[in-house]
Amino acid sequence: MQGFIHNDTVFKESILMRAIVPFKRERAKSRLSPVLSGEERSGFAHAMLRDVLCALSGSGIRIDILTTSVSGAMQVNAKNVVVCELGLNDALNQYLDSMVAHSEIEPVIILMADLPLATEEHISEICSRDSDVVIVPGKRGGTNVLFLKDPSRFRVDYYGTSFLDHMRIAKDAGMSIEVFDSYMLSTDIDEPGDLIEVLIHGKGEAAGYLRNLGFEVCADNDRVELRRRGNG
Amino acid sequence: MQGFIHNDTVFKESILMRAIVPFKRERAKSRLSPVLSGEERSGFAHAMLRDVLCALSGSGIRIDILTTSVSGAMQVNAKNVVVCELGLNDALNQYLDSMVAHSEIEPVIILMADLPLATEEHISEICSRDSDVVIVPGKRGGTNVLFLKDPSRFRVDYYGTSFLDHMRIAKDAGMSIEVFDSYMLSTDIDEPGDLIEVLIHGKGEAAGYLRNLGFEVCADNDRVELRRRGNG
To answer: Which member of B137, B160, B182 has the closest CB to residue A181?
Structure first.
C-alpha cells in the first residue's frame, strides 16, 4: 500500500470487510488535561482503543489501526498498524484510494478510537444493515462511526459538522443512507464531563482505568460531578 | 384520582397502557436564558412538548401531561392535563399510587417533555420490549424515558444519577431491566449547546421554532457553534 508502512501481524483470514480505527498518539486527548496528566491521558487513550478493538474483535474482520507516528509503543495486542503522517481526512481517503488501487474493494467500517462504550452488538448490527452508508452521529454534528459498503464511491470529510457533510456526500453519490441511533456510540470522550459517561455506562478497560485512578461519580442533589479520590 | 385535577378531554379509547409526560411550566428551561427570552423559552418548551406528544400519538395510548400549575394556556391540543403541585418524584409516585388505588394497573411510559428528537418508532420499540423495566439513559446519569410494565412495583427517583438509581430500584424489586440505547432519546435539551442537536437532527416543531427565530449551526474549522441571524 503506497505511502504506508505496515508492521505487526498481517491477518490472513478470509476478508469480507475491514475496520479502520484512526488513533492519534501525539497530544492524545489534550482536552482532558484539567483532570489527567500526560501519562494518564496516554494510558486512558490506549485503554479506550483496546475497548474499541475488543468490540471489533468479535466480528473476526481485519482491523487496521491508522496512526500518525511510529514512535512509542502501541499498548495493544498485535494488529495491523498503518502509519500515515497526513491529517485524518487525507490519511483515510488515501487509505480508501489504496484499497481501490489494489482492487481490494470491500465494505469498511471506520470507528473513532475514543468510543469506549462500543460493543460487539453495535458492530454486528451496523455491519448487517442494508444501506450503502451507515452513519453513527456524535455530539455537535460529529461522525463517530461510518460504515461504507463500497468505499470506492465515498470520500470522508471529518471535522466540523461531518455528520451533515457525510450525509450530503452519500446523497450526492446516490448511495442509500441510514442513521444508526446509539447513545453509547455517540459518546466520544473529549472533555472531563465525558468521563462521567464512561464511569456510569462503561464495562471495559477505559472504565477500569479511571476507577483505578480513583475517579468516581458524585451526585449532590441535582448536580452530577466527577470526583477523584485523594485528589482534594 | 385523589389530589389531582383533570381537565380537557378524557380519552375514551380502550386503554392498554398510558404515557405520562411531566411538563414544567414555571421558569421552564431557564438554563437557555443566555440565548432565549422568557417568552421564547416558553414557546420552545411547548414546541418540544408537542414533538413528544406527536411521537406518542401514533401509539394510540392515553397521554397524561403532568404539570404543576393551571395558570397560563397550554399550547397543545386537547390532552389529559393532570395538575399536581408536588415536586417531580412525589407527583409521579402519587400518580402511580393513584393508578394502583383505582386498580388501573397497566404499563406506563414516562417521557420527559424536552425530548424533541423522539419519534413514533422509538415509542413503539420501547413499548414492545419484554423486560419489566426499560430505561433510556440521559446525559450525566439521567433518565429520559422509563417504561414500567407493572407500575405498582416501582417508585421513581429522578434527579442526580437517576439512571443508576432506577436500575437499582428495578433490581431490588426483582424486575428484569433493559437499557434502551438511543442518542436521539438521550438528547434532552437543557443548555444552549443542546440546541445544536435540535437543529442538526430535529424534524419537528422544536427545530422549526428555532429556525424561525434565526438560529443556525455554524462550522468554522473544527468549532461547531450555535449562531442567531440578525442577533450580532
So the answer is: B182
What single-letter amino acid sits at A143? Answer: T
The lowest-confidence range among A53-57, B39-43, B219-223 is: B219-223
Q: How many residues are given for chain A?
A: 232
Q: Specify the long-range contacts of residues A210-216, CB closer than 8 Å, at least 24 apart.
A: A210/A44, A213/A36, A213/A40, A215/A35
Which band of pLDDT confidence, cut at 50, 70 and 90, is reported for residue A25?
Answer: confident
Measured between CA atoms, how close is A163 to chain B, in angstroms? 9
pLDDT of residue B10: 41
Is residue A144 a contact partner of residue B141, using CB atoms and an 8 Å limit?
no
* pTM across the whole model: 0.91
Residues of chain B with C-beta less than 8 angstroms from the C-beta of A157:
none
- Interval A78-105: pLDDT, tens: 678 888 889 999 999 999 999 989 888 8
Q: Which are the contacts of B37, defined by CB distance < 8 A and separation ≥ 6? A: none
Shortest distance, CA B102 to any CA of chain A (angstroms): 32
For chain A, give the mean pLDDT.
Answer: 89
**Minimal CA separation from B74 to chain A, in Å:** 27
Tell if the CB–CB gap between A160 and B184 is shorter than 8 Å.
no
pLDDT-based confidence at B77, cuts 50/70/90?
A: low
Please name the member of A163, A197, A222 whose beta carbon is closest to the beta carbon of B159. Answer: A222
